[in-house]
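Data deposition worksheet. Section B asks for the primary sequence of the deposited chain exactly as it was used as input, without tags or linkers unless they were present during the calculation. Section C holds the resulting structure in token form. Section D is free text for depositor observations; keep each observation to a single sentence. Incomplete worksheets are returned to the depositor.
Section A, Depositor: J.P.
Section B:
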Amino acid sequence: MTDKIIKIKQGDKNKYGYQGVIYDSREEIYFLWWLQDANKERLLVFDYQPESIHLSDPVKAVWEEQKKTKVKERELHIFNSRSYTPDFSITWNEQITENSPKSNKLRAALGISLLVKSEGSNLTAIVPTNNGKAIKLKDLLFNALLTYDDSCKVTHESTIDVKGGFSTYNNHREFTLKQAWIYQTTGIVVDKIVPEKLFAKTFYPERYFLTDGATRKRKGMNERTKTLKSLLDSL
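Section C:
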């Protein structure tokens, strides 16, 4: 199976094929590589485009139309139903979520806060520390929300929306509105991940060291570029 990214034209949009799967953007594939490296180290498991989240039902208005001999009830369509499909879902493994100095170091290095639902719509956060001080909030990348699976086992999960490096103000505002709507409707926290910013703050996936076509080394990648292995060795 080829290891290169293939651009696929679908109507007026570009899609990207990688190892038999079609993705909406190159950035999704870059983030996939990051997840694959973390999965190899048993830090997490993940799904691409998990089950859609239902947000709202369709809205219709009923009105009566007067015919010659009778009144006919008609429907006026107002809104379609709405749902949201995350780009990825992550379940973090115990070496990330357990209460230990090593797990705290891992969460600090990867920018992970643990979230627990409290009263009403509020949340309680466990923010990792570095040398006894909480890491800067701008360095938090993932919110791992405590949930229960079908067997009532406790897990910590992150719901991911992957974005490109360039985003207009309107796109940012639209996403923050979507974040709030999803949380108020479902209690799910959606994290926005920009792969290149994520890599710079955590580690660069091994596959990212090659170009998309897998033919040569990517510009800027060298032996000093941080990988997950070098990150783990430094903790």
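Section D:
Helices lie at 26-40, 94-97, 101-110, 169-186, 195-201, 228-234.
The chain has two domains: 6-50+85-234, 57-81.
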